[in-house]
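User: Let's play a game. I give you a shape written as tokens, and you guess the letters that built it. Ready? Here's round one.
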């Protein structure tokens, strides 16, 4: 497909969307009712296949759909890891019955998801996970610990990786479950970050249960399923991905937003929550901060530099140009991926490259932002009741956001696979460089040495 034809096709979709929004958006609807209307019309996740409540659009076109919904002034689709990770994974590996059971509730915002992958001794070496699932009739009994679980405190379900066979090499004995978070035996403990917020959690599983029918992709086939989740994570979090899955209204039954008025959340979008009646809370502010940095970090810093007189500093101007250039590179890489997929090909390693670029952009935004903010950037409020007072005291309220971005910037190079892991994947799987010698793919997991 030519670039002109692709543009015309996308424009046609956006025209259809605009007409649909004109006929259907009603700010007086509840969040639940609006998201059901949006999701069942296949606008919540248009990148999903048509049998999974989507439209089969490329990721970049799906990003444009999301941007158009926001520009129109309607409440965007439910954010979070359900839409970003669980839905495309289940659409790829699940049965149609599982798609109808799980993906439908994701696109209409009825259930929220978290990711139960990392463990205290299995982060970068994810296949070394030790959480066990033991068969008990039609169910599995799960015991173990997970960590760095984003929004686990507000999740209905989790993407759980658990070891179901320790007698085979570690990559072969893992199963992927759709796991219920609201049940006895599940304890979620928040982890406070440098920002003072608690996006991440540690989760303790003690004789928790999950149905055999909740296995996604087959027994002991979880590693392949997890790689689909990780690929979507890196593509979504990477530069040019378009979103960090942030959401103002919280999907699912635990967050408590489904029965609130949809229009109240529209005015709350953006760093700090705006002036609407709905505000970003501690669990989704970090996501919103990163999304704003990725989507318009250069524009934000340019505006602040203009207001405080730093815009004429040649070093600051050079930094702003560099930040803008990296953002544009991410956008063009996204367009390259779209063109390649429309031509039936791929660009190996691009999700990993995008993830590395995102980490670099966050570091650039941190350093340049603090340079622009000056001494005021050293002030930060770690508790909700202090944040409004600090914004009132600062010479520019946006400085509060810049400081929060600087504190958050340490996280992206770690989560979603560290920068070192991304480089290893590019070296081994794309460039064909030799792997580090080990026997973990031939030795039973039970026989491998474990961390003390």
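Assistant: Ready! My guess for every position:
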């Amino acid at each position: 497909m030519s670039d002109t034809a692709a543009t015309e096709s996308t424009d046609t979709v956006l025209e259809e969307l605009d007409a649909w929004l004109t006929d259907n958006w009603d700010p007086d609807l509840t969040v639940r009712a609006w998201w059901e209307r949006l999701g069942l019309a296949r606008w919540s996740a248009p990148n999903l296949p048509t049998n999974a409540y989507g439209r089969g659009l490329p990721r970049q076109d799906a990003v444009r759909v999301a941007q158009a919904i926001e520009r129109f002034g309607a409440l965007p689709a439910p954010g979070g890891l359900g839409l970003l990770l669980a839905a495309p994974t289940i659409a790829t590996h699940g049965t149609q019955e599982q798609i109808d059971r799980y993906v439908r509730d994701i696109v209409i915002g009825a259930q929220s998801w978290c990711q139960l992958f990392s463990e205290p001794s299995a982060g970068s070496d994810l296949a070394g996970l030790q959480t066990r699932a033991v068969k008990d009739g039609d169910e599995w009994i799960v015991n173990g610990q997970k960590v760095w679980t984003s929004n686990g405190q507000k999740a209905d379900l989790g993407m759980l990786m658990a070891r179901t066979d320790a007698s085979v090499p570690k990559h072969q004995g893992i199963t992927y479950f759709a796991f219920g978070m609201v049940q006895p035996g599940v304890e979620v403990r928040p982890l406070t970050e440098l920002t003072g917020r608690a996006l991440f959690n540690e989760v303790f599983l003690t004789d928790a249960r999950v149905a055999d029918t909740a296995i996604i992709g087959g027994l002991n086939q979880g590693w392949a399923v997890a790689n689909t989740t990780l690929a979507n994570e890196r593509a979504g979090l990477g530069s040019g991905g378009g979103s960090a899955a942030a959401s103002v209204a919280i999907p699912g039954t635990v967050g408590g937003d489904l029965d609130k008025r949809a229009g109240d959340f529209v005015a709350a979008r953006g760093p700090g929550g705006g002036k609407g009646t709905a505000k970003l809370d501690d669990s989704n502010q970090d996501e919103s901060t990163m999304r704003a940095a990725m989507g318009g970090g250069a524009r934000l810093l340019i505006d602040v530099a203009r207001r405080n007189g730093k815009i004429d500093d040649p070093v600051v101007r050079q930094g702003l140009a560099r930040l803008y250039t990296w953002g544009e590179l991410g956008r063009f890489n996204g367009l390259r991926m779209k063109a390649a997929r429309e031509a039936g090909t791929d660009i190996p390693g691009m999700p990993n490259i995008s993830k590395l670029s995102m980490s670099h952009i966050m570091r650039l935004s941190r350093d340049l932002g603090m340079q622009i903010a000056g001494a005021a950037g050293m002030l930060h409020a770690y508790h909700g009741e202090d944040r409004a007072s600090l914004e009132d005291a600062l010479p520019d309220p946006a400085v509060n956001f810049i400081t929060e971005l600087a504190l958050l910037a340490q996280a992206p190079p770690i989560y979603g696979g560290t920068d070192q892991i991304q480089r290893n994947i590019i070296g081994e799987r794309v460039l064909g460089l030799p792997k580090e010698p080990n026997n973990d793919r031939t030795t039973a997991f039970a026989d491998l040495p474990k961390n003390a």
